[in-house]
Design a protein that fits this description.
This protein folds into three domains: about 45 residues, Transferase, Pyrimidine Nucleoside Phosphorylase, Chain A, domain 3 (Up-down Bundle); about 250 residues, 3-Layer(aba) Sandwich (Pyrimidine Nucleoside Phosphorylase, Chain A, domain 2); about 90 residues, Aldehyde Oxidoreductase, domain 3 (Alpha-Beta Complex), CATH 3.90.1170. It is about 45% helix and about 15% strand. It has a four-stranded mixed sheet, with helices on both faces. A four-stranded antiparallel sheet has the order 6-9-11-7. Strands 10-8-12 form a three-stranded antiparallel sheet. Helix 10 links the parallel strand 4 and strand 5. Helix 12 packs across helix 13. The two termini are about 40 Å apart. About 55% of the residues are buried. The model has no long low-confidence stretch (mean pLDDT about 95).
Length: about 425
């Protein structure tokens, strides 16, 4: 097979065969096809697109390019959850204890944050001693005994995707639906999921800003899941404002704990219940999505979800006493109110800018090796549709350097647009694709 022929074929809008896709993924992973030829193919795919069959084949080829996790030693149906990322998105910290309290085995691989969105692992490391670097044996053992373990992604998980993603990043070919969908799904398939629930975020703080693009991505990922025999549901949710109120690692952990105690923000609870319901239903721990939701609400009322969080944090070496005494989490030195001098209703929040402002405080990674400050961030008080009076606080900033706080607060304020008139609040759940 010649790479030249594959590029020519896709350039002309033809369909690549299964053998051709498998061949190029395998050879590129081995390093026998140069970047410039793969770049040309990616650009051809960008303009010509891929059929569902091509996308499914690409997904499976990338998943098989490295370790395929064998979770067969874990009893029950393993349901994974993935979010396309957003600002203040601490949903995994809420959903995983809730569903595992109902006996759903949570065997999850999570990532660290990069750029303006945070990562679950960074947040969990707010608990002193907590580690995701556990052995495969401990991982499997923990899921079998306490029903939950979260590990960092192994280095050899879908290496083809790693290489292709890096190349897409420098060849302006990231934003192609089939390429994004296969990239995300290849890692889920390699992680051993039997069923997958996706949170596809859309809006000013999301990767997919436009709702119709988010819908296309969701449909493509659900098709891939189906094509590979995994039950898959995608929930399209709003990211035109931070989720909940907390943005920043340990601030978000504290908010997740409050949510499991029954005192969390409505939007965070709602999306957690929605995602969790499908997970519980797919794991056959409820007869319907509705029944699953009712059972999940009970895990908060009876304290079993919070107890799961305690067990999970302890089992991975973390100090679970922080759950009952959240004041023990380190506090930033500078805590100040962010005041707007106008009166009006919040019309728009450029949410990505809130994420960047948190990064400026030291709460996010600019490069893979950046060390992050877990104590910094924001607690947002005003969201879209809320009234704000001149002199009123719209958020509290938590920082450890005067210079960083001043710069971050300026950016935060600029992210807000006011209107003199009342505006409708956003609908959180925009669509569900099953
Ligand atoms: N996240 C991924 O994992 N892959 C993409 O292509 C885009 C976002």
């Amino acid at each position: 097979m010649r790479m030249y022929d594959l590029i020519e074929k896709k350039k002309m809008g033809n369909v690549l065969s299964e053998q051709e896709i498998e061949w190029f993924v395998e050879e590129y992973t081995k390093g026998t096809i140069p970047d410039y030829q793969v770049s040309a193919l990616l650009m051809a795919i960008y303009f010509q697109g891929m059929t569902n069959e091509e996308t499914v084949t690409l997904t499976l080829s990338m998943a098989k390019s490295g370790d395929m996790l064998d979770l067969s030693k874990i009893e029950g149906i393993k349901v994974d959850k993935h979010s396309t990322g957003g600002v203040g998105d601490k949903t995994s910290l809420v959903v995983t204890p809730m569903v595992s309290a109902l006996g759903v085995p949570v065997a999850k691989m999570s990532g660290r944050g990069l750029g303006h969105t945070g990562g679950t692992i960074d947040k969990l490391e707010s608990f002193p001693g907590f580690s995701t670097g556990i052995s495969e044996e401990t991982f499997i053992n923990n899921v079998n005994t306490i029903k939950i373990a979260i590990a960092g992604q192994t280095a050899n998980l879908a290496p083809a995707d790693k290489k292709l993603y890096a190349l897409r990043d420098v060849t302006a070919t990231v934003d192609q639906i089939s390429l994004i969908a296969s990239s995300i799904m290849s890692k889920k398939i390699a992680s051993g999921a039997d069923a997958i629930v996706l949170d596809v975020k859309t809006g000013s703080g999301a990767f997919m800003r436009k709702e119709e693009e988010a819908l296309k991505l969701a449909r493509t990922m659900v098709e891939i899941g189906k094509g590979l025999g995994r039950e898959t549901t995608a929930i399209i949710s709003d990211m035109n404002q931070p989720l909940g109120f907390a943005v920043g690692n340990n601030l978000e952990v504290k908010e997740a704990i409050e949510t499991l105690k029954g005192n969390g923000p409505k939007d965070l609870l709602e999306i957690s219940l929605e995602l969790g319901s499908y997970m519980v239903y797919y794991a056959k721990k409820a007869n319907s999505v509705k029944e699953a939701r009712e059972k999940l609400i009970k895990t908060i009322e009876d304290g079993s979800a919070l107890e799961q969080l305690r067990k999970f944090v302890s089992a991975q070496g973390g100090d679970a006493s922080y759950i009952d005494a959240p004041e023990k989490f380190p506090m930033a030195d500078i805590i100040e109110e962010i005041i707007l001098e106008e009166t009006g209703y919040i019309k728009y929040i450029e949410t990505e800018e809130i994420g960047f402002a948190a990064m400026m405080l030291g709460g996010g990674r600019e490069t893979k090796d950046s060390i992050i400050d877990l104590s910094v961030g924001f607690i947002v008080h005003k969201k879209v549709g809320d009234q704000v009076l001149a002199g009123e606080s719209i958020a509290t900033v938590y920082g450890n350097s005067r210079k960083q706080v001043d710069a971050a607060v300026k950016r935060f304020k600029e992210a807000y647009t006011l209107s003199p008139d009342y505006l409708e609040k956003f609908k959180l759940i925009k669509d569900i694709i099953s």
